[in-house]
Amino acid sequence: MVQIVISSSGAGRLAQWVLLELQGEGEPRQSGGLAGSVLGDLHYTHQGIPVLIVGHHILYGKVVQLEKPFAVLVKQGAGESQPAGPHARYTVTALIKTKLLFKTRPKPIITNVPKKV
After folding, report:
1. Which of 13-22, 69-78, 96-105 shows the highest mean pLDDT?
2. How many domains does the chain have?
3. Is 27 within 8 Å of 41 (Cβ atoms)?
4. Within a domain: 82
5. Burial class (CB in 10 A: 0-12, 13-18, 19+), 102
6. Is the Cα torsion angle 86, 88, 92, 95 positive or negative in sign?
């Protein structure tokens, strides 16, 4: 039997992360992927409704509490590139208890509509 040691990081509270769920797919303008790129701007209304602005589009979402929280694990110790073995150690660095759900179609942001002459 393989034992995997899981411990929490630091003496203080764990970081609280938020999961972002979008319907559809996001494609980068440049070939290379989305890693390290800024997706958009996240804002909240006075009523606590999340608003995501991506380019010239706006998405309205809702805050959902997860039924089962996720733990963010970082592998530590010997053979970090190898699969879990007898000396594998993981550290819990954050918890995810909430997700922002954007399930509606994005709406275009139109700021100035030219009038016909």
Report:
1. 96-105
2. 1
3. no
4. no
5. buried
6. negative
Domain that holds residue 50: 5-26+38-76+87-107
In angstroms, the CA 97 to CA 71 distance is 9
Vertex 94: Cα angle to 43 and 51 (nearest 5): 10
What's the rounded Cα separation, in Å, for the pair 26 and 31? 12
CA atoms within 13 A on the CB side of 39: 14
Q: What is the DSSP letter of 106?
A: P
Q: pLDDT for 27-55, tens place per residue?
A: 777 777 777 778 889 999 999 999 999 88
